[in-house]
From TrEMBL, chain A:
Residue span(s) of domain Longin: 6-120
Domain V-SNARE coiled-coil homology stretches: 135-195
Provenance organism: Hibiscus syriacus (Rose of Sharon)
Family of this protein: Belongs to the synaptobrevin family.
Record GO cellular component, one term: Golgi membrane
Manganese as UniProt keyword: no
Subcellular location: Endoplasmic reticulum membrane; Golgi apparatus membrane
Protein name: 25.3 kDa vesicle transport protein
């Protein structure tokens, strides 16, 4: 059963539409919404992700498809057939592109296509019951292949971004540290040089002074 | 303060105060006509007069004028003043009378002025201290033979107190006195129409050109020096008219009213016609906008005074409420719509510290890289996308493309950070009582029909959601699934544990389920036609509606026809017990009885549900409890006592249609920010306060206004200007989240007179009425009225003290021009439905409903309600041909006095909520016949006004239509009444003629006298 539906632009993570009464009877809807937002953020950073993916989170699964720089995402129970979920997203995608296709790139405000929620609502109802004739027919239809769609865990996915961030952070730290190290080394080198030759120079200086004084005095 | 009244010692009518205090009923301002009279509070009983110490100078001066006059010790320097800075002054030194002219040039600047000067530069009204000289100047002209003596005397004109503290100028005050008597001979030649006693007051010199008529109107007897002084103001010098006229106009800053009363009579001796009346309706003071042209329009934000006091002591002396009235979504006329700005990726520019939105008063510095917040003066960085270079004057070069930097009212498109969820769709949920009384009154029919006719105009297509619940002793749900052909009804009779029988489809998308909804509405009236159920399970039904709506929020419209009698929230017939009036228990009647209502209101607000209550019963329905739901959810109470569809149908139809179709803002919050040092402390209106200063408004529309009071946090404000910014974050019906921002600036002043000059009566009364209504919820009606009266008196007294010394006001009543209606509106407020009388005057439900309504009314509407218009129309109806401009002519409002009702005339009384059409006894039968049709002779209470096929009737309808169009928020239902038709005439019209004295209430003239007497007392 579809719990939540969101449509966002991939380029900047701007939410474009959302199912109407999402998160009704869902205990921690807020948490899942946060996860979805984090996911969109990740996508907008341009990590190359597959255009279709399922991500497990707690007792639910996020399914999303990315098409034409728009990400269509839904959250379902784990038991809900994957095939149906992706069918549902395809339906949304087709309608969304048909209605709003031209304005997607120019949308400037969040939820610019909130009117689409009525369609989401309607479509959702069609997919509510997995045992309706229509849905069984769809399940049996082999045209649409979903087996290769990767399934990952949400921690993993959100983690990737985090890890990459960490790596780049570490490397940048490394660069700055090494620069400091080089500076320090140069400095030490100079000091060592001074320490090595300073006594000799002083002795010589004294000798010269003495010589100079001698010639002058005598 | 003993200084206020120089004329006091001579007041012959003084003793009559004491009798007055023991209150002959006629003088009593507002005694309830019910049995509660005994509880008359003594709050405004005058204190027996005691001679204030300050009188001494006067009496001393009286007997020995010549001595003082020639007294060399009279200081001339402090008195004379001509600061060359003030523009009005430039004119001054060149009056055409040579004798006087010799005085001005050598005047020294007045002392004590500096604090005032900065604002003076900007303010068009000349400061008060200039006046005295101008008044003196003419004096010599009035008595030519004494010219030689006079220049010095004019030098002696009392120096007005620059900081309005009265003790300062007193020494200066004496000298002019002596100068006066010497003029007496000339003066006394004039015929003296007034009796010699002090109680005679002079006509006001308020108008700029008062000269012609007032010349002879003073007649101070030589014996009384003080009186001579009072009259000096009036003595308008025939010869000097042109020049002084200019000066006078520039310097006059208060108005006055002569109040005269003859001891032992109740005749106030006031000329009724000369009293100020707001016949032009609400006049918004324009000086504010002129001063700061970038301020938002006053229709959105009005301050009670456009001059903010700089110190707490000044606040304490300004006895009127200090604050603002905000009508966040006021309807803008064509072409003045608020511009919508989308910052898109830049994000909304706000101050880092105080979160102020960017506005016209911020300043850009550092070549445009930084901006300084005008409210907390923090220096903020300008984001890269928003950067623009500055021109030579320091203004941004892209100013004309940035409406937010030139306009005080703008709207920003909110980015995602301002949303906790996607914008909600507009949602209307109807909770309809279908018990027998509702069926009988025909309410269901009208409601169903109206909703059906409005379906197409509901805002927010195609997202709009709609749902219905009906209830009597059970709760009925309706499944409106789009695939059905007709709605399915589900009955839940378990009231103790109410549940929602269906998870979905009780609330449906209207565009999809349109057919089902229409079928439902068509069949609703017939469905319950034969219902004989008398119970009302209001509480459980409300809970059910709450459960259905809680996912989305929205607007809940409740149509309630009887007292809730079943389940949770059941109410008792606690009724209107007359014994309770006048006791400490009185206010409890006006509070919700069951905590369920307040708790429910809090929950509803939390889930963004706004409630509008429509109540119809002819019996007690405890509006006080029901209205609480509306009060805390930003809603509104509509009350149609003894509703009959035949009579009140039109009103309900119009108001419900308006409620459904007007532009509504959803899930809104509002906050008002202001500069450092001041703070908004209390908020008044229909809303729920979420944190200390955040108003939660589940639904807002153009007919709601909110008032707030401010206070000074610091003892002294050092800034020159304070800024206010109102921000309303809301979801528009189209599904956009927006932020409406209004910015206004106001000067900080050090002078009380300036505050009074910039006062805004409308805003003051908006606040006043809310304060008074709130007071009736915690105490007796009597107390609320008394505290109101006390405030009026204190304010006027303070004002009087400002000017009493240098103007020798005597017994004149003075008030600032800006507050000339203060007394009248005060009186009107006393006589308004929520506050007037006691038990018998207004039914409890009506009183509570009016209270809830007035708490939300915008300023203009409130003033109309307080002082309704009365228009005579028979002449227009009889005119053979009507032109368009005629129409304006007939819209002339008349004072609300019964004397104005000519028995040959036909009048319309319009208070914004209803019309009363009054037929004079001798109005020509033709008119009546034409307007009322064949049954014109019948009892008018049974006649409804319909359009007949004749010119006259059409014209009347046109007038009514025009009047209604001027303000569509409520529908005025016409009531017809014939002169002498008691008791209807009394109830409908006469009791509303607020200037009249009616059963235990004061008339306008008496009221003025009463206030005036109290002002004079200390």
């Amino acid at each position: 059963m579809v719990k939540m539906t969101m449509i966002a632009r991939v380029t900047d993570g701007l939410p474009l539409a959302e199912g109407l009464d999402d998160g009704r009877d869902l205990a921690d809807a807020e948490m899942y919404k946060q996860q979805v937002k984090a996911l969109f953020k990740n996508l907008s950073k341009g990590h190359n992700e597959a255009s279709r993916m399922s991500i497990e989170t707690g007792p639910y699964v996020f399914h999303y498809i990315i098409e034409g720089r728009v990400c269509y995402l839904t959250m379902c129970d784990r038991a809900y057939p994957k095939k149906l979920a992706f069918q549902y997203l395809e339906d949304l995608k087709n309608e969304f592109e048909r209605v709003n296709g031209a304005q997607i790139e120019t949308a400037a405000r969040p939820y610019a296509f909130i009117k689409f929620d009525t369609f989401i609502q309607k479509t959702k109802k069609l997919y509510l019951d997995t045992r309706t004739q229509r849905n069984i027919a769809k399940l049996n239809d082999e045209l649409y292949e979903v087996h290769q769609i990767m399934t990952r865990n949400v921690q993993e996915v959100l983690g990737v971004g985090e890890k990459l961030d960490q790596v780049s952070q570490m490397s940048s730290r490394l660069t700055s540290e090494s620069r400091i190290y080089a500076d320090k080394a140069r400095d030490l080198n100079r000091q060592a040089l001074i320490r090595k030759w300073a006594p000799v120079a002083i002795v010589l200086g004294v000798v010269f002074l003495l010589f100079w004084g001698k010639t002058k005095l005598w | 303060m003993g200084t206020e009244n120089p004329g006091r010692p001579n007041f012959p009518m003084r003793p009559s105060f004491t009798p007055f205090a023991s209150a002959p009923p006629t003088v009593r301002p507002f005694s309830p006509s019910g049995p509660g009279t005994g509880s008359e509070s003594s709050n405004f009983r005058p204190i027996p007069p005691g001679a204030p110490p300050t009188m001494t100078p006067f009496s001393a001066a009286g007997p020995s004028p010549p001595v003082r006059f020639s007294d060399p010790s009279v200081p001339s320097a402090p008195i004379a003043s001509v600061p060359p800075s003030g523009a009005p002054y430039q004119r001054f030194p060149t009056p055409p009378f040579p004798s006087a002219a010799q005085a001005p040039p050598n005047r020294a600047p007045p002392m004590g002025q500096p604090p005032f000067q900065p604002p003076a530069g900007q303010i068009s009204v000349p400061p008060p201290f200039f006046r005295p000289q101008t008044q003196v100047l003419p004096v010599p002209m009035g008595s030519p033979p004494q010219n030689a003596n006079f220049p010095p005397s004019s030098m002696n004109v009392p120096q007005p107190p620059t900081d309005s503290s009265l003790s300062g100028p007193r020494p200066n005050f004496q000298p002019p006195f002596p100068g006066y008597p010497s003029k007496q001979p000339a003066v006394s030649q004039a015929p003296s129409p007034f009796p010699a006693q002090q109680g005679s007051f002079m006509p006001p010199p308020a108008s700029p050109s008062p000269f012609p008529s007032q010349q002879g109107s003073y007649g101070p007897p030589p014996v009384s020096a003080t009186l001579g002084y009072q009259s000096r103001d009036q003595m308008q010098h025939p010869g000097s008219a042109p020049p002084t006229g200019g000066v006078q106009r520039l310097t006059e800053d208060f108005s006055s009213l002569s109040v005269q009363s003859i001891p032992g009579t109740n005749d106030p001796g006031l000329d009724n016609r000369s009293l100020p009346r707001p016949l032009d309706g609400d006049v918004v003071p324009s000086s504010f906008l002129e001063m700061y042209p970038m301020n938002c329009d006053p229709r959105y934000l009005r301050l009670t005074t456009a001059a903010i006091p700089n110190s707490q002591s000044l606040v304490a002396r300004w006895h009127l409420p200090l604050g603002a009235v905000v009508c966040p979504l006021a309807e803008a006329p064509e072409g003045e719509e608020v511009p919508v700005i989308n910052f898109a990726s830049t994000g909304i520019i706000r101050c880092r510290r105080c979160r102020t939105y960017v506005n016209p008063y911020v300043t850009f510095t550092d070549a445009g890289r930084k901006w300084r917040c005008n409210i907390c003066s923090l220096l903020n960085d300008v984001p890269g996308e928003y950067f623009a270079n500055l021109d030579a004057t320091g203004r941004r070069i892209d100013l004309d493309q940035r409406p937010e930097l030139i306009k005080g009212s703008v709207e920003f498109v909110a980015p995602t950070e301002y949303m906790v969820r996607p914008p909600m769709p507009p949602l209307y949920f109807f909770l309809i009582d279908v018990s027998i009384s509702a069926v009988r009154s025909g309410m269901i029919e009208v409601v169903a029909e109206t909703i059906r006719s409005c379906l197409d105009e509901l805002p927010g297509f195609p997202r709009t959601q709609i749902g219905f619940i009906t209830y009597d002793s059970t709760v009925h749900f309706y499944n409106m699934k789009s695939s059905l052909t007709q709605p399915q009804m589900m009955v839940v009779s378990d009231l103790d544990d109410i549940f929602v029988p269906l998870p979905d489809d009780l609330l449906v998308n209207f565009s999809e389920s349109r057919n089902v909804v229409e079928t439902f509405l068509d069949s609703l009236p017939s469905m319950f036609q034969d219902n004989v159920n008398v119970e009302s399970a209001f509480g459980p039904a409300l809970k059910a509606a709450f459960m259905v709506m809680s996912q989305l929020g929205g607007k809940l419209l409740i149509f309630q026809n009887s007292l809730p009698s079943l389940g949770v929230g059941r109410l008792k017939l606690r009724g209107d017990d007359l014994r309770v009036y006048g006791t400490d228990e009185e206010h409890i009647l006006r509070l919700p009885e069951d905590p369920f209502y307040k708790q429910m209101a809090a929950d509803l607000t939390k889930y963004q549900i706004g409630v509008n209550i429509y109540a119809f019963s002819d019996k007690y329905t405890d509006i006080a409890s029901l209205g609480t739901l509306a009060k805390y959810t930003g809603g509104q109470v509509y009350y149609y006592p003894s509703f009959r569809s035949g009579i009140h149908g039109d009103k309900l139809r119009h108001e419900l249609a308006r409620d459904l179709t007007r532009e509504t803002a959803w899930e809104a919050v509002m906050r008002i920010r202001c500069g450092k040092g001041i703070r908004f402390t209390s908020y008044h209106g229909n809303f729920m306060l979420r944190s200390t200063d955040l108003l939660a408004l589940p639904t807002v529309d153009c007919d709601k206004a909110y008032a707030m009071q401010l206070s000074l946090e610091e003892t002294l404000l050092t800034t020159q200007t304070v800024y206010f910014q109102v921000a309303l974050l809301y979801t528009a019906s189209c599904g956009e989240r927006r932020i409406r921002v209004y910015t206004a600036a106001a000067p900080v002043v050090t002078d009380l007179g300036e505050m009074y000059r910039q006062a805004d009566t409308g805003a003051i009364f908006s606040l006043f009425s809310r304060l008074a209504i709130e007071k009736t919820l915690t105490g007796k009606l009597e107390d609320a009225r008394n505290s109101l009266q006390l405030m009026l008196v204190k304010a006027l007294r303070e004002y009087r003290n400002l000017y009493s010394v240098q103007h020798r006001l005597g017994a004149r009543m003075i008030y600032p021009e800006s507050l000339k209606f203060l007394c009248l509106y005060g009186l009107a407020l006393f006589k308004s439905v929520p506050l007037k009388g006691g038990y018998a005057d207004v039914q409890l439900d009506e009183r509570c409903a009016a209270g809830f309504t007035m708490m939300a009314l915008p300023v203009k509407k409130l003033l109309k309600l307080l002082y309704p218009s009365l228009i005579r129309i028979d002449e227009y109806l009889l005119k053979p041909s009507a032109q368009a401009d005629d129409f304006k002519n007939i819209m002339k409002r008349l004072p609300l006095v019964s004397e104005n009702l000519d028995s040959r005339g036909l009048y319309i009384y319009d208070d914004g909520f209803r019309f009363v059409i009054w037929f004079g006894r001798m109005v020509s039968p033709d008119i009546a016949k034409n307007l009322l049709g064949p049954d014109f002779a019948a009892e008018l209470s049974r006649v409804t006004l319909t359009e007949h096929d004749n010119e006259m009737s059409r014209r009347l309808m046109k007038i009514l239509k025009k009047l209604r169009e001027s303000d569509p928020s409520y529908y005025q239902l016409p009531y017809l009444v014939r002169q002498g038709e008691q008791p209807r005439e009394g109830l409908l019209l006469l009791v509303n003629l607020i200037e009249d004295q009616m059963g235990g209430t004061t008339g306008y003239a008496n009221w003025i006298t009463l206030i005036h007497r109290q002002v004079q007392q200390n």
